[in-house]
Amino acid sequence: MANKRVGLFVTCLVDLMRPRIGFAALKLLETAGCEVIVPDTQTCCGQPAWNSGDKAGAEALAKKTIAEFEGFDYIVVPSGSCGDHIRSEYQSMFAEEPSWRDRATAMAARTYELTDFLASVLKVDSVPGDYEGTVTYHDSCSGLRSMGIKAQPRALLAKMKAVELKEMNGCEECCGFGGTFSVKFGEVSAAIAERKCDFIHASGAPAVVGGDLGCLLNIEGKLRRMGDETTRVLHVAEVLAGDA
């Protein structure tokens, strides 16, 4: 795998809100022996535009992303949501543009969510993190239902001797974010988020871990508004890399 070139798609939220997740992903991939490139012109995969009905804007961003990343052996994304958009939507988006559809199809076959790539492709034996403590895990909707991300992060966390995973009830339930859903349906989103936070509290774990920063920001915001200033909200890459 050392000769394989991996393009790291950082994602907008990670770049703007918690860049250390991107650095953690980079550390994990390089520790596993990959040559990692982070194209400095990358921006958004286009998912927010696509979900909001801005077809032209979404297509422009998709073409930009394809052009920036199609030269790599693999494309790795620390987000099931963005990874799913690249793998699932790009091909249908260009159904009537054969050239772009073929390029999108080729890219989809090489695109992986971070924990899936580490566990299923690289089959890593260990991770560099030294996190100690009990955590509970939130399964994000797109990663779980569209990309099959469930066992992979748990298998990686199990390689950390000082980490205990305590599953919460409703770990597969939505956190209420859903991108623009949380804006369009604020009251419903807030109620779903509160239910998720109740599950987290009931688990007794002092930290909740997940694989999508959008979910984590939503959960953390709700926890703080509920008066919880102590529960840590961490991306799985931060825990695995020792950057939590």
Main structural class? alpha/beta
| Percent of residues in helices | 40-55%
Radius of gyration: 18 Å
Number of strands: 8
How much of the sequence lies in strands comes to 5-15%
Q: Structurally, how many domains make up the residues? A: 2
- Arrangement of strands in the largest sheet: 2-1-3-4
Outline: globular
Number of helices, counting only DSSP H or I runs of 4 residues or more? 13
Distance between the termini: 27 Å
The protein's oligomeric status is: single chain
Taken in chain order, the helices and strands follow as EHHEHHEHHEHEHHEHHEHEH
Which spans of ≥5 residues are poorly predicted at pLDDT below 50?
none
What is the mean predicted local confidence, pLDDT?
Answer: 96
Description:
- The chain is globular and about 50 Å long.
- The longest helix has 18 residues.
- By secondary structure, it is of the alpha/beta class.
- The protein folds into two domains: 116 residues; 116 residues, 3-Layer(aba) Sandwich (Rossmann fold).
- Helix 11 packs across helix 12.
- The mean pLDDT is 96.
- Strands 2-1-3-4 form a four-stranded parallel sheet, sandwiched between helices. Strands 6-5-7-8 form a four-stranded parallel sheet.
- The chain starts with a strand and ends with a helix.
